[in-house]
Amino acid sequence: MRVLLIYHSRSGVTHSLMKAIGAELEARNHLTTYVRLEAERPLSILGACWAALRRRGVKLRTELPRSLMGYDLVLIAGPVHAGRPSAELNTFLDSMPDAIGRRVAVFATHGGGNSDEHLRSVKVKVERAGGLIIYEDAVSRGTVSKPLELAGCARNIVEQVLRPSVW
Ligand SMILES: Cc1cc2nc3c(=O)[nH]c(=O)nc-3n(C[C@H](O)[C@H](O)[C@H](O)COP(=O)(O)O)c2cc1C
After folding, report:
1. Adjacent-strand bridge partners of 105
2. What's the mean pLDDT in 124-150?
3. Global pTM value
């Protein structure tokens, strides 16, 4: 299976989560492609909160995939900023290529707050692009910082996204 892992990570937590999930997929012989969304000019903390609250994007220096059709599964992830998706993730979601029929899993990492609005907002945009949500999860910064917990979490996630009922 070809898997795209596309994510924003300001301080590395989401990056570590995606790498752990990717490693688990690779161990099962799936092909992974990583795209880390990066702003042309990084936002300050205040700027990041403000942009997230206003549901704004930011200009990216990352080249975005022009199509998702070459992937069987797309994982979309980012940190919760002020309860919402980050500006970098918004930019991708607001210009998302057609995802018609693509299976999509959505992830938020957080510092202990509520991720519901973040996940809801991402899912609405994915579904608008035609994607089928097969899994969603919110993972805390604390879990990602503990290697054993992270490995267990990544294993569970991969078992969920590969569960036979969605393929
Ligand atoms: C600008 C900013 C806003 C944040 N807002 C929230 C929040 O509303 N709720 C929460 O639980 N964590 C919040 N956090 C913590 C991050 O979501 C959390 O540390 C996340 O795992 C960081 O992921 P990253 O290292 O991939 O950027 C915020 C962090 C930043 C920098």
Report:
1. 75, 135
2. 98
3. 0.98
The string of pLDDT tens digits covering residues 4-40 is 999 999 999 999 999 999 999 999 999 999 999 999 9
Residue 8: its H or E element: strand 2-8
Please calculate the CA angle 33-87-153 and round it to the nearest 5 degrees.
50
> Which residue minimizes the CA distance to atom 3 of ligand 1?
81
Domain count for the chain: 1
Instruction: Please list the alpha-helical segments (H only) found in 83-146.
Output: 87-94, 116-128, 141-145
Range of the domain at 6: 2-166
Q: Quick one: which of 58, 99, 80, 88 has its CA closest to 141?
A: 80
Point out the ligand 1 atom lying closest to the alpha carbon of residue 14.
26
